[in-house]
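Run log // design_07
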């Protein structure tokens, strides 16, 4: 019989802590802090993986350095091909980029309150609309899935990207995006199954630890 069942496994990893106090860092290309680097290494545990077989066929990263620099390390140490996907970058906060909530409360109190009250509808000045961001991420994931049938891919990205993806997998209402906690170096896994007439998505694990199987 012909092979008609295909599966793509995506391991989703958020970047670690960045080298600045909390602020609206969407498109801002900020580096990881030393703690952020430790968080990433703790999540993936490269030392243990080097003693075993690398579980991934490919690593795909956001183009922002808080993601790709660690992806590059994993790729080099485990000898796994890596690529950058530009559409996995975080949402752009426009004029709010790099500003803290306290600063926004002082500089743009009406706009910031509107965002707090209706984050699905309000877009920061010159920022990216949430609907456009979610469409961009969804299309990127669609492309990745269809390029990696029967493979396991490590995807290193951002909180917004991961939460948007999980909402799509769960077919959850848009406002669920703000109910999902995605801490630094958060690891989750999803699978996409393809059948002749349909496809199905499954959340395997959320905000957990990478299980390293022994040979």
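design_07 sequence
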């Amino acid at each position: 019989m012909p092979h008609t069942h295909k599966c793509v496994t995506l391991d989703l990893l958020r970047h670690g802590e960045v080298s600045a106090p909390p602020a609206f860092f969407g498109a801002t290309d900020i580096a990881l802090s030393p703690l952020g680097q430790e968080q990433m290494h703790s999540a993936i545990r490269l030392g243990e993986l080097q003693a075993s077989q690398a579980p991934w066929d490919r690593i795909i990263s956001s183009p922002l350095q808080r993601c790709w620099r660690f992806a590059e390390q994993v790729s080099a140490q485990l000898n796994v091909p890596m690529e950058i996907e530009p559409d996995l970058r975080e949402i752009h906060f426009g004029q709010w980029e790099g500003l803290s909530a306290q600063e926004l409360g002082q500089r743009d109190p009406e706009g910031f309150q509107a965002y707090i009250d209706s984050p699905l509808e309000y877009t920061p000045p010159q920022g990216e609309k949430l609907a456009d961001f979610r469409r961009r991420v969804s299309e990127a994931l669609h492309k990745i899935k269809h390029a990696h049938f029967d493979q396991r891919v490590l995807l290193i990205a951002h909180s917004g990207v991961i939460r948007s993806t999980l909402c799509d997998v769960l077919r959850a209402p848009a406002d669920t995006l703000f109910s999902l906690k995605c801490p630094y170096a958060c690891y989750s896994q999803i699978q996409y199954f393809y059948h002749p007439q349909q496809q199905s998505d499954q959340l395997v694990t959320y905000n957990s630890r990478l299980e390293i199987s022994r040979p």
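The beta strands are 6-14, 58-61, 82-84, 152-157, 187-194, 199-208.
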